[in-house]
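Protocol step 4 of 5: obtain the predicted structure for the target chain.
Materials: sequence only (see below). No template structures provided, no constraints applied. The aim of this step is simply to have a reference model before the mutagenesis design in step 5. Sequence pasted as it appears in the construct record:
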Amino acid sequence: MTQNKVWKIGEINSAIKELVENSLMPIWVQAEVGTLNIHQSGHVYMTLKDQRSQLRAVFFNGAGPARQIRLKVGDQVEVFGKLTVYEVRGEYQLSVRQIRPLGLGDLQRRFEELKRKLETEGLFEPAHKKAIPLLPETIALVTSPGGAAIRDFLQIIERRFPNIHVQIYPTPVQGHGAERNLAAGIEFFNRAKQADVIVITRGGGSMEDLWPFNEEILARAVAASEIPVISAVGHEIDFSICDFVADMRVPTPSAAAELVVGRREEFEKHLQRSEKDLKSSLQFVLQEVKNRLKLASGSHVFREPIHIVRQKQQYLDDLMKNLSISLERTLHDNDLRLQLVAGKLKSNSHSYFRLMHSQLNGLIGKLDALGPQNVLNRGFAILRDSETNETIMDHNQQSGKELQATVSNGTIDLVVK
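Step 4 output (structure tokens):
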């Protein structure tokens, strides 16, 4: 019964769609772009091929990513998507979710690794960014001398400020080893110390073309520069490690030139506004001073300045008068104090002298009572050796020794028995 069923085309395509879409997971495919149609709807239709076969592919809403990588016929790409069946035409195709140039996956991985490393070290911090001078006298340009970037840059400089000096360090901007030459240009201008700002620039290109600006040696040279560095690499959609490390990033070389020198008209307008503001400020200050002078000139001080002197003289006379009165009062008070003290001293001195005289007489009486003559008068005698006239203090004397005794009214000769 089943073998005799007659299938419709739509049923066959639907069955194939279910079979294909449910049997395979999303996959990465490496291929060459054979045909390419970026539709106005924003969808991208293309044919992917290798040496033997081809495969239709559709990238819904993929116009932006395709333009970002500048997708064109002949490009080698890596595409991530899922096999689907377009039932209307009975064709299977790859429904694309992501597309990148061949080898970009490894480059993107290296880009992210270096970005994380330098960001961890703090090389992207705003605190490390140096200010770009408002109007530099000398601009250092590190770029290829034959590229469109330098022509655009110099045309804008010439048109806006032709008297600004531009120094160029010629160097390759793509290919193996270009990053070393670019870093050498940054280091050269830092040694010379003749530039106010360094602009490192090139036009747009693929990620592979711009890769020298993602190398660590260039990033560290930019970070170590003492001169402010502006990075103007590629187009607005392009970002490089150099952009993150530089003191300022601009999307194009032309934008770098416009940023560095500004517009002559803008500077002139700014100067005119500043001049107008300065004049207004000066006029305001001048009018304020005039008003203060007018107010001061109308005061009593300026009309009769001698009046102030006379007031001060009168005040001085009052001070002298008060001082004289105060001095007389002080002297009078002191004189009274002196008289009082003198009276006390005089009264006290008589009592003191009587006391001292009485005490002195008592002492004299005591001295007289203790005198030698009074002692002799009381019946005492002083014995002396008749030969030596020494006073005898010891009773042990030799028998027959002659002595002399002094009494109150004379002397007596004695012999020791």
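Step 4 remarks: Residues 92 and 134 are 60 Å apart (CA to CA). The mean pLDDT is 82.
Proceed to step 5.
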